[in-house]
Amino acid sequence: MIRGVDKNNPIIIFVHGGPGCSEIPYVRKYQDNLEEKFTIVHYDQRGTGKSYNFFQDYSELSPDLLVDDLIELTKYIQERFGKDKVLLAGHSFGSYLAMQAAAKVPENYIAYIGIGQVSNLPESELESLNYCVEEAAKVGNKEDIEKLQKIRSDVENGNNFVPRMYIQKYGGGARLIDESGDYLDGYITNREYNLLDIIRFNLGVKKSEEMIPELLKKPLTNLVTKLEIPCYFHMGQYDYKTSAKAAKNYFDSIVAPEKEFILYLEPAHYPQFEKEEKFDQWLLEKFSSSVIKHRD
C-alpha cells in the first residue's frame, strides 16, 4: 500500500512486525500527518495478511527470504518513483529484517530507522520475563508468577519467548493507545481489508511464528554490527516486547557514520503511535524534502 500527496516527496518503506503482523490496519488512524511530507509504503510480508495465499507452500519461509523480498521491493519502489534512495523503517520483527537489508544494500537507503528495535532476543526476553514477574508480584498475582517462573530456564537458555499476553497485561506492550482495539478497528473499517483478509491474517501469523526459533538462535546482534548509513533507534521506556535496555546495549555496539537513540519516557512498544506527534516531528526535522536536499 502506497500513500501520500506528492510523489516527489521522500519515500519511507515501513517493515511491519510480528512475525506476521501487518501494520496497515493502524495506517489511517496514525499516518495522515506524515503523508503530507512523505510517500509511505507499507506491505504485508510474504505469507501474511493480504500476501497470504491459501494454496501456496510456505514450508521454505524464513527471515532470509523476507530480507530478500524487502530488497526486491525497495528496487521496485526506486524504479517506480525514480528515486536513488529511500528511507527504511522497521518496527519490532520488521527491524530484524530491515536492518539486515540496510547492511546488505546500503546504497539503496538514505538511513535506517528502528522502532521497537530487536536486539539480542535472549537478553531482551529475560528483561521482559523479570519485568512481568515484578509487576505480577506488585499486584499479588501468584498464578502468573508461577507460570512465568516455569519458563525461566528456557528463556535464560534462549529457547523460549515470554508469552505476549503477560507483557500486554502488565503494560509492556502499549500504554497510550488501545493496541488490540485499534488493530481490530483497522481490519474492520479500513477499505484495504475484508473479512477474508482476517482469515489470511490469522493463518499467516500461525505460519510466520514458526520462524521464532531461528530468531532466538540467530540474534541480530551477531548478524549486523555495522551500518554504512545513519542509524536511529526509537524506543519506548516501557517496551518489554523488545527491551529498551537490550536495544540500547546493541545501539552502543553498532558502528555507523551517524546514530541516535531516542527514548520515549511514556510509551511502550509503539512510540510511533503512542507519541505520534513527537515521532512525526522528528521525521520531518530529519528527512523532509528540504532537509534532504540540503544534505545532498
Automatic annotation (TrEMBL):
Pfam families noted in UniProt: Abhydrolase_1
Reactions catalysed: Release of N-terminal proline from a peptide
Entry's family note: Belongs to the peptidase S33 family.
InterPro entries to which the protein is assigned, alphabetical: AB_hydrolase_1 (IPR000073), AB_hydrolase_fold (IPR029058), Peptidase_S33 (IPR002410), Pro_iminopeptidase (IPR005944)
Signal sequence extent: none
Keyword entries, A-Z: Aminopeptidase, Cytoplasm, Hydrolase, Protease
A GO term, aspect molecular function: aminopeptidase activity
Main location: cytoplasm
One Gene Ontology biological process: proteolysis
GO CC term, one of those recorded: cytoplasm
Localisation: Cytoplasm
E.C. number: 3.4.11.5
Domain AB hydrolase-1 residues, every copy: 10-117
Protein name: prolyl aminopeptidase
PANTHER family for this protein: PROLINE IMINOPEPTIDASE (PTHR43722:SF1)
Organism this protein belongs to: bioreactor metagenome
